[in-house]
Amino acid sequence: MISVKNLSYVYSPKTPFNTQALFGINVDINDGDFFGIIGNTGAGKSTLVSHFNALTRVQKNSGTVFVDDVDLSAKKLDLKKLRAKVGMVFQYPEYQLFDDTVEKDVMFGPKNLGLPVDEQRSRAKAAIELVGLDYAEIAGRSPFELSGGQKRRVALAGVLAMRPEILVLDEPTAGIDPIGKRKLMELICDIKKTCPTIIMISHNMDEIASYCNRIAVLDRGTVKGVFAPRELFGSRELLEKCGVELPLVTELAVGLADAGIDIDRSIIDQDELVCAILKAGKYA
């Protein structure tokens, strides 16, 4: 669904402040993927994904990005159509809220698509309910009066009202307490039923290991590889090479294995770890 070939990007080119953020990126994201993108601060993660709906344009002679059969390096793009297909939720999306009621804020995207008012309102209602909020209770309220968690859900609803086929999430659980993180990730899993392809940037390796089926590792503007979760978190050499931390479950499994307990070091699932511990104890 998304194909990136030899993509490079330079900020402030031909000025004393020019900085190259991406170097010849090659990556394919398939229809139905829950695709993780990880890497240290400054690795180029946000710059990469901002190309997917042309918020950042492909620079001349700097590679290509295709969304389905649409070449995003073309000079003329149907941006409305593209951004209806590829929805993007930025880190701390609650700071993107701007209208005087929740409903108007969520209707903004459908309005820009030129949809009739009734359709705008219908989509807003469906999106607000999809993110777990009570439409009747919240539609007429100012988004600035809501709690932080509610603001984040409203911002997400504003993107979902566009009914994208691809959803890009940049650090969706940043700054949320553990219970809030779990609830938001459960919500994102529910959203995947209607928005089949999700791309998630995260520094939280537990979330990456638990939800993503494929993971791209970025380092200083290059892709070090695309891995299945077990492949990535089961290789100490690979982790050290990529500068990746272990999920907590895997870290515990490695610690137990180092202590002489017969446990697979590549475990990434909490229930699997419990079963492995019980099995190791049974045959100890």
Write a compact overview of the structure shown.
39% of the residues lie in helices and 20% in strands. It is of the alpha/beta class and 284 residues long.
Overall mean confidence score, pLDDT: 91
Secondary structure tally, helices: 12
* Order of strands, widest sheet: 6-7-8-3-9-10
Which structural class do you get from the secondary structure elements?
A: alpha/beta
Distance between the termini: 49 Å
Order of helices and strands: EEEHEEHEHHHHEHEHEEHHHH
Rg calc = 21 Å
- The helix fraction, in percent, is 25-40%
Strand content bin: 15-25%
Reported for the largest beta sheet, the result is: 6 strands, mixed
* Shape, principal axes of CA atoms: globular
Number of separate strands = 10
* Low-pLDDT segments, ≥5 res: none
What does this protein look like?
- This protein has helices at 45-49, 79-85, 102-112, 117-130, 135-138, 148-160, 178-191, 205-211, 229-233, 236-242, 248-258, 270-282, and strands at residues 2-11, 19-29, 34-38, 64-67, 70-71, 86-89, 166-170, 197-201, 214-219, 222-227.
- By secondary structure, the protein is of the alpha/beta class.
- The strands form two sheets. A six-stranded mixed sheet has the order 6-7-8-3-9-10.
- Strand 7 (166-170), helix 7 and strand 8 form a beta-alpha-beta unit.
- It is globular and about 65 Å long.
